[in-house]
Amino acid sequence: MTWQLASILPVWALAIIGAVVIGLFSAPDQYFTWVPIVFAAAIIAAFTIQLAIRRKEGFVTRVMVSTGGALVALAASTAIFAVVS
């Protein structure tokens, strides 16, 4: 695994774990309140991880891929929440 991928996957994992936690522990009428909060946490985590690496090359691409993957994961969970609730 390359260091670029190793810096992206934790953000995706955070989004997926956040979606699962929302689905398990949140009331159905609160699903759509918590999803943006998890996405905000994923964005903060993406910037934190990428700034901690201290490499300029590909910074924007790594942040974009990190947040884009989190967005896709949370969009899929939102679709599932819409069907379930």
From TrEMBL:
It comes from Conyzicola nivalis. This is Uncharacterized protein YacL. The chain crosses the membrane at residues 7-25, 31-53, 65-84. Keywords: Membrane, Transmembrane, Transmembrane helix.
